[in-house]
Amino acid sequence: MEFVNIILLISVSQGFLFGFAILFSPYFRSSTNKYLGYSILILAFLMFNVYLDALNIYEQYPKFLVLYDIEWIFLFPVFFFVYILKSIDHEFIVERKWNWLYIPFMFSVILNVVYNLEHIYKWEIFFLSDETLMYKWAFDVQEFGYYSYNFVIAIWAYNILKHKKNTNQIKGKWLKKLCVYEVSLVTCWVLIDIADMIFDIGYDVGISIICTITSFFIFWIVYNGVYSLKISNFKNSDVNLNKDTLEVKNLKVSISEHSFSRNNIYFQKLEDLLEKDYIYRNPNLNQEMVAETLNISSGYLSQIVNDVARKNFTAYINSYRVNEVKEMILNEEFDKYSLLSIGLEAGFKAKSTFYTSFKKETGLTPNQFKIDHKKVQFF
User: Fold this and answer.
1) What per-residue confidence (pLDDT) applies to 355?
2) CB within 8 A of 25, min separation 6: which ones?
3) SMART domains per the record (predicted)?
4) Fewer CB in 10 Å around end: N or C, the chain?
């Protein structure tokens, strides 16, 4: 049993480490990748529950048993499915029709909470003569569902990818592999359960095999997906991926050689946000907020701005603020405004940042710029 606990602990640690890395890493963090992170965290949490059960924690504290009984596995295919569809901008996600996919999980939550309230907390909720039979049917449905649901969702996702046109070839191949590996993972779970029922292989052996397979699945996602995750953030950008750039090493070389241009779709969207929506006027604007709006990672946005504008993100945003300040200084309607008020109006958060950025962009302080302009007007 100690060997099983070690395997569980390794698998749980790996799952939480990789899951949180995807969620909080500046390079991979995006509204799409977070669902892949959620999927990995759900697998880690499931194994963590098994680990706690192996330590007899739930026997010592039965009131927490509901956390073990709820079939969290119903969330895995949902997060997985949403990641797939968001990666290809499928209309099913745009129209937010996917929320009903949580119904099986909500069924499991209600079923197990009610059951635990009655049998652990001794609350009398139902007063039916065939209550035992009702619970048996409900739990049978749940047991059948947590296997079949994973199969159905994975096959559905694969079918969508198969018929989806205009999808990046590398990204499509990566997503299809994910579907196949998910089906393989669930198949292994089913076969191990069947083997246990027929041959009585034992709890320890079954759990060890399941955790090893799940751990391998997580490791495969991270090891093979790091490159593919980068690709998923590129979406339909103008990065040319030929055979020579399919390797990570060559991709890094192409990026370092300024592979992005002003024609990049995300840079154009960024310019629209700045020039039409004036987002730079928000003093609290940051790189993460803009990346989330563009549905790309913060790291990828930083690379685009650095390559195209040859500035970091903050300096690039401040350049728009400086241009607006210059326009307001040249506008007679703002003659009664103080220079600091104009700077704050343009989106600068502090006086020091305003003066430093303005001089860096123009070579003059705001006051010198104003004086020089009036001299020009005078003459």
Assistant:
1) 93
2) 299
3) HTH_ARAC
4) C
CB atoms under 10 Å from CB of 379, counted, come to: 5
In terms of Cα–Cα distance, which of 23, 42, 43 is closest to 32? 23
Instruction: State the SS3 of 257-318.
Output: CCCCCCCCHHHHHHHHHHHCCCHHHCCCCCHHHHHHHHCCCHHHHHHHHHHHHCCCHHHHHH
Structure-derived torsion over alpha carbons of residues 28, 31, 32, 34, reported in degrees to the nearest 10: 60
Residue closest to 218 by CA, chosen among 10, 14, 74, 9: 14
C-alpha dihedral sign at 221, 226, 228, 233: positive
Q: Is the pLDDT of residue 14 over 70?
A: yes
- Provide the pLDDT confidence category of residue 220 given band limits of 50, 70 and 90: confident
Token pair 């700045």 is at which residue?
Answer: 274
Give the CATH fold of the 265-378 domain: Arc Repressor Mutant, subunit A (1.10.10)
Q: Which residue do the tokens 């958060």 mark?
A: 349
Q: 3-class DSSP state for residue 236? A: coil
Whose CA is closest to 74, among 51, 50, 45?
A: 45
Q: What is the pLDDT of residues 108-153, one digit of tens each?
A: 999 999 999 988 888 877 655 567 788 889 999 998 888 889 889 9
Q: What span, in angstroms and rounded, lies between the C-alpha atoms of 164 and 281?
A: 39
pLDDT of residue 96: 67
The SS3 call for residue 148 is helix
The whole-number pLDDT of residue 41 equals 94
Q: Which two tokens stand for residue 191?
A: 């076969």
pLDDT at 346 over 50: yes
Domain over 2-234 is classified CATH 2.40.10: no
